[in-house]
């Protein structure tokens, strides 16, 4: 029998010593009522909460779990390096090995720099673009997420207008909107940011249009600005290369994170020779940016990416999840919008403007051992099997039945409605 008494007790304690009780993207404040906040174990495709409930995890730590939690080869590499050195006065030689590995794998990359978070990597890209020709204006798509620092955070607390004074917004996948934004920047254009595909929360995902991507490349070249692909979320889930290689467009810079160490804290900025001098002229650093253990994990993760069929397996599992869940929903009288790449599924309900169906469905599935999100894209990992999908469908079938029976009494989340201004 599912219960969350220990989780609720931990929330009460946390509220006394942590502002808001929890913060950031892993806060469950926007999730359905009762979703667990605290977890004690992760292994393969599953996570276990503080009350001992175990879930098939379709969030994968919001992306870092690429190969399966506690992957034995990655864990062995971590243990070997931990016995030698981790954070030291200088970096391990592994930093050179890792830079060479990434340059050898990513077509546009001639160099690599390492950090800890996606926000670090995208901010390094921003600084490099501005250092390249001393220009200031940077173009970003409206609603796109590039991290949580003042220039990019989606929430306004603590942010002043000056933090974003030189950002210009355009509509993703719209070449004309992009051209208009470039015109607005005039002779002060430093860079153009793009996500590999549109993956905004609470919205259907949209794959990139090749014309838009080519326009971004052409406009950057015409104005001697740098094109940046933010691959923090999608890296290695669409391709063994930069995600825009799938549409034949190479950026000058790409930001990476999440999957690089299969859960170990490491991110990267990769760039071409055009941007090398600019990258060398910015000052960025961190006490733990050069730690050796995450680099050892990243080297082993990249080896697995190169040598196994992890990607093809994830694509098969993702398509099985998509088709089976869509068919199951139809059988219960619901219509789903299942958008985006099969390895990063976004599942929303038709005729659900206030998300009451999605929230109730995910809550019902959660109590039956499947962790889904009603508003954020999810993630397939390489440890998932057909048996995991079959078990998932048992839980989601019961969840569909529950919301079908209770459809007339379902209510929207009050927290969500307050956020949306309803």
Overall description:
37% of the residues lie in helices and 14% in strands. By secondary structure, the protein is an alpha/beta fold. The strands form 3 sheets. A 7-stranded mixed sheet has the order 4-10-9-8-7-5-6, sandwiched between helices. Strands 1-2-3-13 form a 4-stranded mixed sheet.
Write the layout of secondary structure elements.
Layout: H1 5-17, E1 39-43, E2 46-49, E3 54-57, H2 72-82, H3 94-105, E4 111-115, H4 118-133, E5 137-141, E6 167-170, H5 175-185, E7 189-194, H6 210-222, E8 226-230, E9 253-256, E10 267-271, H7 276-281, H8 292-307, H9 310-331, E11 336-339, E12 346-349, H10 356-366, E13 370-371, H11 386-406, H12 414-419
Parallel strand pairs: 3-13, 5-6, 5-7, 7-8, 8-9
Antiparallel strand pairs: 1-2, 2-3, 4-10, 9-10, 11-12
Helix pairs in contact: 2-8, 3-8, 5-6, 9-11, 10-11
Structural class by secondary-structure content: alpha/beta
Shape: globular
- Radius of gyration, rounded? 22 Å
- Helix % is 25-40%
Mean pLDDT: 97
Low-confidence stretches: none
Q: How much of the sequence is in beta strands?
A: 5-15%
Query: Total helix count?
Result: 12
| Separation, N- and C-terminal Cα atoms | 35 Å
Order of helices and strands: HEEEHHEHEEHEHEEEHHHEEHEHH
Write out the strand line-up for the largest beta sheet, numbering strands in chain order: 4-10-9-8-7-5-6
Largest sheet: 7 strands, mixed
Number of DSSP strand runs: 13
Overview features:
alpha/beta; seven-stranded mixed β-sheet; four-stranded mixed β-sheet; 13 strands; about 35% helix; globular
